[in-house]
Amino acid sequence: MSELRELREQPYDLVVTGVRLVSGDGVVTGGLAVSGGRIACLLGPNERPPARRTLDGGGRHLLPGLIDSHVHFRTPGLTHKEDWAHASRAAVAGGITTVVDMPNTVPPLRTGEEAHRKAELVDGTSLVDYRFHLGVAGEDPSPLREVGAREATSVKVFLAGHHTAPHVVRDPVQLEKVFRTAAEAGLRLLLHAEDDGVFSLLDEWRGAPSGYAEYERHRPRSGAIVAVARVLELVRRHGTSVHVLHASTAEEADLLTAGAHAGLPVTFEVTPHHLSFTAEDTSRVGARTRLSPAIRYRPDQDRLWQAVLAHEVATLGSDHAPHTRAEKLRAPADAPPGLPGVQEMFPAVHTGLRRRAPMDSPDAQLSCLVRLLAEHPAELFGLDERKGRLRPGLDADFVLFDADERWMLEPDAIRSKCGWSAYEGWTMTGRVRQTFRRGVSVYRLDELGHDVEFGTPDGRWLDARRPADVEPR
Ligand code: DOR
Ligand code: ZN
């Protein structure tokens, strides 16, 4: 508390007025003051304390800086696809101020020491703050016991592989060890829950897909359902805290919701692309929406939206996984799955919510997004003492958002190094106008919506605490 009092006694660095402050519980009119990179206090509608700089939000919404807990920024080793400088520009343009990066790089990220080396590589190139998920493969998982919360609180496991995911845990005995070790070490497991064995069996019988019209059928829902059922059984046996990534089918949403309802420590994520596209789009546009897991048909998409609206989903994650145009133009069997999404996620899902929940007020829709993209990821990954809310004492990360502005994603506005987007030509509702990270503007769009100004790439490798629900045993 004394730190807070100190913040209040200093002259404010920045005061934002005339905004609608969004939290997961609702929206209030007011403003906030910033000191030393933190939120010093929230302000009522008529409070305008003196400050070095002021910003009048003109009645727009102010959201906490968003957290994308599922990105592949490709450092090290895959920087021809994406690099941190481009990716973090894409992030702040999409209202994201913190990312948690995936370990399937070259080499993969497996230890606390490697996390320190990776942070050195990223240092000085990032507009956003960041953390890393560690990875495991088929080898002995016991080194995970040595990992401190400083380095990581979460470990990603691939149960199915593909071009950029060669390290898969296929052996059931090894998988069991990973679940047990993670539970003992107090690490949350993140699962790519699709069963490789199911896919190989089917491919051996039917042959590999010849075109995108067949793609979904060759990475079918059975692979995801089998894997999720297995994961639930392992959670039941070992008590491991698990977050299932990119749920794509109705059955996964049902099983995971039922598991949580039964008291298992399971949560799940949905991606913007599974909410935005269907398998018909993949047949039509091909490689751009070739994803792992595959994009499904309308009834699955409807169930995923229902899961978002019914508070069954814990987080949205972009699964920002760019590949070059040339890689995507390869023959279907060789074109890698993945698409960029860190820039598109927030406006695309906001646009979808407007359509899917027209009876909800714009305020309620934004509260829903703040839960999924700020509060919940901060809690799941131990960042909630610094990130995720507009609350005095927390980092002054926030996004000025015009919820009614309609705009089109033009090719020259794409910030990812890959230079393409599956959402090109989409008309979006709701636009990020300005993004602040630790009190400093890192992205600003001019009033006409053409020119942008990025800040200094001084994003930090964040410390985190072990979330209370994954205490070591
Ligand atoms: O489509 C995907 N692309 N799914 C993954 O699991 C990984 C990602 C990538 O790294 O390209
Ligand atoms: Zn991913």
Strand content: 15-25%
Uncertain residue segments = none
CATH class of the domain at 66-383: Alpha Beta
| Hetero compounds | (4S)-2,6-dioxohexahydropyrimidine-4-carboxylic acid, zinc ion
CATH fold-level name of the domain at 66-383: TIM Barrel
Q: Distance N terminus to C terminus?
A: 32 Å
Second rung of CATH, namely the architecture of the domain at 66-383: Alpha-Beta Barrel
Protein model, in words:
The protein is an alpha/beta fold. 31% of the residues lie in helices and 23% in strands. It is built from 14 helices and 18 strands. Helix 3 links the parallel strand 7 (96-101) and strand 8. It is globular. The mean pLDDT is 95. Bound molecules: (4S)-2,6-dioxohexahydropyrimidine-4-carboxylic acid and zinc ion (ZN).
Task: Describe the structure using short key phrases.
single chain; 473 residues; alpha/beta; TIM Barrel; nine-stranded mixed beta sheet; six-stranded parallel beta sheet; 14 helices; 18 strands; globular; binds (4S)-2,6-dioxohexahydropyrimidine-4-carboxylic acid; binds zinc ion; Dihydroorotase; allantoinase activity; Amidohydro-rel; Metal_Hydrolase; metal ion binding
